[in-house]
What we know:
By secondary structure, this protein is an alpha/beta fold. It is built from 9 helices and 7 strands.
Amino acid sequence: MFDLRYHVASLTAVFLALVIGILVGVGMSGRGFVTDAERDNFNDRLAALDEQLQEEELVVEDLELRQESAQEFVESAYPVLVEGRLEGQNVAVLVIGSYDDTLNDVREAVRRADGALVRVRAVTVPIPTEEIQSALRSDAEPGEFVGEEELDDLGRELGSELVEGGETPLWDLLTPDLVGRREGSPEVEVDAVVVIREADPQQRETARFLAGLYRGIAGAGAPAVGVERSRVLQSAIPVFAQAGLSTVDGIDTPLGALALILLLAGPERGDYGVRDTAVDGVLPTLEPLPPATTSE
């Protein structure tokens, strides 16, 4: 979670800078001494700044208490809130880079919500462009995607295939060169997709390919969410959002896991979490589950 004490530290730094500015201003008055009126004005300004700082500290303390209370509530209520929300739903995961802890976070969240993680594909980056082009030229079917200028469209088509399942000619053709690890069958159509970027940001051909891949997933008609853990060196959230994916940061916390499940379970889209990229708030709308039907 975001540590609000950093906000207090920033305010204190601003306060000190203003004090120094006042002192410098007085020192540059040009008369070599401070009059009683200047001293009174100086003291008044310091008192006002001090009062403002104290008010801000109280606000931050209140926000910290609310944040802690919300976190405690979600942690205690999490099992009840997620149970059954993905029942009967199939989920696919696309990993950019190698498997890591984030995939385990997603796997556990889907399991707790009674969903099924039926397909995982880990794309190796940077992509081997020459090998991919050679594979495309060797097969008459996907000839329309030959050429580096077609990498965006190639990514889009692979994104659609990942969601729709069934026959996946492009994945079948390019898996030896493109996929590092995989799980599950390509045949099952999925109800939702999670995207994880474990690799560093990519450039040039790989960046164009990934942009198309994200857009293909986002436009396939199923809920699609890009996720990452609480602490990352370089966030992928802006890239995911630009491609049309919903996003969640803090997937390694109950709050982030709950946000992911709510997005996967319904039509709502948005950017959620605790950082400034979470422009839609902490959580999507938490709707009650319909009562379970009992057979007589």
